[in-house]
Design goal:
Layout: H1 9-33, H2 44-55, H3 62-66, H4 70-82, H5 87-111, H6 118-125, H7 128-133, H8 140-160, H9 163-177, H10 186-189, H11 191-200, H12 205-234, H13 243-255, H14 266-280, H15 287-304, H16 308-324, H17 328-334, H18 350-361, H19 365-389, H20 398-412, H21 428-455, H22 457-462
Helix pairs in contact: 1-5, 1-6, 2-4, 4-5, 5-8, 6-21, 8-9, 9-12, 11-12, 11-20, 13-14, 13-15, 14-15, 18-19, 19-21, 20-21
């Protein structure tokens, strides 16, 4: 594998330092440019207002129950220490959290013995999707930190059988469940793989049972906290009231577009909204009841009225956007940079748009950087696929890589139809590790080929 030589260990440590300080540098640029909170571009006001209400001992706002509590608690703690609505302190705290995230991501790669490739380190240095997320006041930043800590402890448990790591993994599951509702699907995809791995190890039977109980209970205790929290405020049982509204206001309108969101199909959005209003009528219903009605309306529309073939195509293109769109798609509008996405360029067909995009890429630095980012992401996705397909049935990495893979649908299934790269930020750390596995495999093959050519010069000639 192409590694930084021992003679360059100082350069390696310096590069690691720059990578870990990257979120702090970026947040400092945000502060100095006057774009803290990006001038209200994101729905961050919902979370800061919840934190402010808690600090005033006000718990009556329904929004507090709709949103999971961990990120508003984090904000409330910063505001309590540094002053109410101190966004400079908040972005600084998040940037430090981002630096810790990169520290433990590098530690994870080091434990896997795949950290010292210059190319792998560059994938961390240039990963704006992670860096940018720690400058935005949304729970994604906290979730990225927690999933990185989960992977670090998962690595310790899988490869070094450190018992305390299973407890720290379980703590991360508990906290992620109270950060973003997407992690509910882990009980279907991820936790069963961890249980199978535990059962196949040489631990004592009592220890296996203990480990499995801790894992499962961490999930259900977190769900229980949210259920109780919701019941105490509304006398209804619910984990999140966003599912039905998300379905009719985002998922279905996005799947009704030819290439997914981008922009929603507002005709379908208005139709489903009107059906919800008609169904509710004059009744005074709770948020849970309205969400359940919205869910039924959305499911009925999908089953009876929606073109399933077009929806599948739309889902494919939206996930393609989610995985391949550079984070500059978000960063440019956040800084009021004049930029048009590919789909917004003038042209009646793909060929015309593509030619115009190429012309702009060689005449405008914004489009050139976007094009280079697109190429970089495309190459990374190839390496990540290699990492996934390097999986072998009897490999020592089998359950570890399966665990990484299982986290991807957990995180991106709820984003179906929504092609925003924001929704892939949480899987970037997973993709980095998978890409490192893929690059490691590729470089080993390359190294063998070079060695063979040196051993048999004629082989090099005939090639």
């Amino acid at each position: 594998m192409i590694k930084i030589s021992l003679k360059s260990q100082r350069k390696y440590k310096f590069l690691k330092l720059i990578i870990c300080l990257n979120p702090i540098f970026f947040s400092l640029f945000v502060i100095l440019s006057g774009f803290v909170d990006y001038r209200g571009m994101f729905e961050s006001g919902e979370y800061t207002s919840i934190a402010q209400n808690w600090l005033k001992n006000s718990f009556e706002d329904n929004l507090m129950i709709e949103r999971l509590p961990l990120y508003p608690l984090f904000i409330a703690l910063i505001f309590k220490i540094f002053g109410d609505y101190n966004l400079i302190a908040l972005i600084t705290a998040q940037s430090i959290l981002g630096s810790i995230t990169f520290i433990y991501l590098i530690k994870t790669l080091e434990k896997l013995n795949i950290s010292e490739s210059l190319i792998i380190l560059l994938t961390l240095l240039l990963n704006l999707s992670i860096v940018f997320r720690f400058s935005v006041f949304l729970p994604n930043c906290l979730f990225v930190f927690l999933i990185t800590m989960f992977l670090y402890n998962c690595t310790n448990f899988f490869y070094f059988k450190k018992n305390k790591s299973i407890y720290l993994m379980s703590l991360c599951i508990f906290l992620m469940m109270l950060t973003r509702p997407i992690f509910q699907l882990s009980i279907v995809f991820t936790i069963p793989i961890l249980i199978i791995f535990i059962l196949k190890q040489g631990f004592q039977k009592n220890l296996k049972i203990k480990f499995i109980l801790v894992l499962v209970l961490s999930y259900f205790f977190a769900a229980g906290v949210q259920f109780i929290r919701y019941y105490n405020n509304t006398n209804n049982i619910s984990y999140s009231t966003q599912s039905g509204f998300q379905l009719i206001y985002w998922v279905i309108p996005c799947l009704s577009q030819k290439y997914g969101c981008g922009s929603r199909n507002m005709e379908v959005h208005s139709l489903l909204n009107q059906r919800l209003k008609n169904e509710i009528g004059e009744r005074n219903l709770s948020e849970v009841q309205e969400n359940n009605i919205a869910w039924k309306i959305g499911i009925n529309y999908f089953l009876s009225e929606m073109n399933k073939t077009e929806a599948i195509k739309s889902a494919f293109f939206s996930y393609s956007k989610l995985l391949f769109h550079p984070t500059l798609t978000e960063i440019y509008p956040s800084f009021n940079v004049d930029f048009k996405n590919f789909s917004a360029l003038n042209g009646d067909n793909f060929e015309e748009k593509f030619i115009l995009f190429l012309k702009k890429s060689f005449s405008d630095i914004k489009y050139f950087l976007y094009m280079m980012s697109l190429i970089f992401i495309f190459l990374l996705r190839i390496l990540q696929l290699v990492g996934i397909f390097s999986l072998k049935r009897n490999s020592s990495n089998l359950y570890y890589i399966l665990t990484l893979i299982s986290l991807i649908p957990v995180i991106i299934i709820p984003a179906i139809g929504i092609g925003n790269p924001r929704y892939r930020s949480e899987i970037e750390v997973i993709l980095i590790v998978l890409g490192a596995f893929g690059l490691n495999k590729f470089l080993k093959l390359f190294s063998k080929k070079i060695h063979k050519q040196k051993k048999f010069p004629f082989y090099s000639f005939i090639k």
